[in-house]
Amino acid sequence: MKMQIDGKFVEAFNKEFFDIINPATGELIDRVPKGTEDDVAIAVEAASLAFNGWASTSPQQRAGILYRAAGIVRQRKDELAVLLTQEQGKPLAEARNEIEGFANVLEYYCGLASSFHGDFVLIPQNGYAFTVKKPLGVCAAIIPWNMPALIMAWKIGPALISGNTLFLKPASNTPLTNLALASILSEAGLPPGVLNIVTGPGEVVGENLVKSLKVKKISFTGEARTGKRVAELAASGMKRVTLELGGSDPMLVCDDANLEDAVTGALRGRFYNCGQTCTAVKRLFVFESVAEEFIKKLETGIWNLKVGNGMHENVDMGPLNNSRQWEYIKELVTDVEEKDEGRIVTGGKVPEGGAYSRGYFFEPTLVVDVPKDSRLLKEEVFGPVLPVVRVKNLDEAIEAANNTCYGLGASIWTKNIDRARIGCEQLNAGIIWLNQHLKVAPEAPFGGTRESGIGKENGPDALSEYLGLKTVMLKT
Ligand code: NAD
Predict the structure, then answer these.
(1) Which of 12, 228, 378, 414 would disulfide-bridge 33, Cβ 3.0–4.6 Å?
(2) What residues line ligand 1, using a CB cutoff of 6 Å?
(3) If you write DSSP's letter for every residue of 31-52 in order, what string do you get?
C-alpha cells in the first residue's frame, strides 16, 4: 500500500516502510511508507495548489462527488469491513457499522451543502452589515486507530463540503482503511490534491504537518497528552484547532432504572470495540440498594460475551489493537490485584488456548468495590475493564462522576424526570445520554469539555470549524 499525494499513490522519500499487523493473529497484513518531513511538505504543497480550484466549485458540485463516494463505499461495505477488522481487530459486525457510519456522515454533509451562507445584519441608525463564510485553506486531520473510518468521515465531511483541501494523517496501526476510502473518493471524482494521505510516525508526519505554515487549521483526535502537544505547536502559528481527546465517561445507574436495559447499555458501552471507544463507559456508579442485583446481571452478561478473532461472525469482542494497549491493560489489572484496588468478579486474564496465543486478547473484566483513588477511576482505561462503584444517592454519584479531568460523555439511567434533569444540568460533559450510552449520530454535535477537548464534530456546528467568517459593514 502507498501514500496518496496529489491524486497519485507514492512511496515515501526515504523508501522506508513499516508493518501493519493483524492484532488477532500477529500476521503481517501490509506495509506502508514511513513518511518523512519532505513527504509532508510535498503533500501540503499539493493541497495548497488544489485549494483555489476546489474552493471555487459550488457546494453542490462537491456534494455530488462526496455523495457518489458514499454510494461506492456502501457497495463495497463488506470488503472494507474485512480490511478494517484485519488491521483494527474489531468484530466484522462493528466494522460494517463503522463503514456505514462513514457513508452516513458524508451523505449528511452533502445535505448541508447549501446551508453555509452568511447573514444580513441591520445596524440601528447606521446602515447594515453582512457576513460571508469562506473555506480556510489547507486543513490537517490527524486521527487515531480506534475508529479510523468514522473519524475520517467526521473530518473530511465538513472540511471538504465547505471547500477546504485536506492532509490526513492516519494512525500508524490503521492506515489501510483510510487509504482505501481515499482511493474511493478519487474514483468518485475528487480532484488530485484535494485529499492527501501521508502515513508515518506522529512525531515526524504529525508534528511537521502541524508546524507547516501553509496549514490553516488542525483537527486532531487522539489522547489528551498528544492533543496538548498539538495545541502547543499550533499556537505559535495561531492556527485554528479542534481537539477531540480522551474521556473517562461515567454511567450513573439509579435505583429506579430499568436494570435489564442498564446492563445491556453497560455491556455495549464498555466492551464495544474491546473497550477502545472514546465515549466508552469507563466508570460505573450504581445506587447501593440495587448494586448486588445489577452486578449479578452484569456478571452473567459478561460471561456470555464471546471473545475471539473479529473475522469470525459470532464474536462479540476482538483483541486490543496493539501491544502498547495490551501491556497497559495487563499492568492495570495486575495493580488492582496487588494494590487491593477492588475485587475482580470476572475476567482479569489473558484468555488461554491456541486461538488466542498470537493476538492481543484480554478477557472482559468486571471490578467492583473500587476505591476512590484507584488508577481505574483516575486514568482513561482504554480497554475491556469495567470498574463499578457503589453510591448512596444521586448527589454522591454526580460528585464522584465529576471527579475527573475529562468531560466527554456521561449517562444517567433513571425513570425519574427530576433525577434526569439534575444529571443533565450537573454532570460535566459535552454529551449526556438518558437511559442509553455511546450512541452518536451525524446530526448531533459531538465533543468534550475540560481535558476532553475543544470544538465540535458532527451536526451543522462542525461546519463553522472549517469556515472563516468575514463581516462587511456598509453605511447608508
Ligand atoms: P494518539 O494521541 O496516540 O494518536 C492520535 C494521532 O496522533 C495518531 O495519528 C498519531 O500518529 C498522531 N500523533 C502522535 N504523536 C503526535 C505528535 N507529537 N504530533 C502530531 N500528531 C501525533 O491517540 P491514539 O492512541 O491513536 O487514540 C486513542 C485516544 O484517542 C484515546 O485517548 C481516545 O479517547 C481518543 N479518542 C477521542 C475521540 C473523540 O472524539 N474525543 C475519538 C476517538 C478516540
Answers:
(1) 12
(2) 142-147, 151, 169, 171-172, 202-203, 206-207, 210, 221-223, 226, 229-230, 244-247, 278, 380, 382, 408, 448, 453
(3) EEE---HHHHHHHHHHHHHHHH
What residue numbers bound the domain in which 409 lies?
A: 250-434
Each residue's pLDDT tens digit, 335-371: 999 998 999 999 999 999 878 889 999 999 999 999 9
Q: Whose CA is nearest to atom 28 of ligand 1?
A: 222
Domain co-membership, 213 together with 320 = no
Q: Catalytic positions, please?
A: 244, 278
The number of residues in the chain equals: 476
At 83, which helix (H) or strand (E)? helix 77-88
133 belongs to a structural domain: yes
Residue 427, C-beta contacts closer than 8 angstroms, at least 6 positions apart: 250, 252, 398, 401, 402, 410, 412
In a domain, 284, yes or no: yes
Q: Is the pTM of this model over 0.90?
A: yes
Secondary structure string (H, E, C) spanning 172-231: CCCCHHHHHHHHHHHHCCCCCCCEEECCCCHHHHHHHHHHCCCEEEEEEECCHHHHHHHH
Taking the C-alpha atoms of residue 8 and residue 19, their distance in angstroms, rounded to an integer, is 21
**H or E element, residue 338:** helix 323-338
Q: Which protein residue's CA is at the shortest distance from atom 11 of ligand 1?
A: 202
- How far lies 197's CA from each of 129, 187, 205, 358, in Å? 40, 15, 10, 30
Q: Which atom of ligand 1 is nearest to the CA of 233?
A: 19
Which residue, 400, 399, 379, 393, is CA-closest to 329? 379
pLDDT digits (tens, 9 = 90+) for 181-239: 999 999 999 999 999 999 999 999 999 999 999 999 999 999 999 999 999 999 999 99
Picking from 338, 384, 379, 380, the residue whose alpha carbon sits closest to that of residue 361 is: 384
DSSP 3-state of 114:
coil
Classify residue 404: in a domain, yes or no: yes
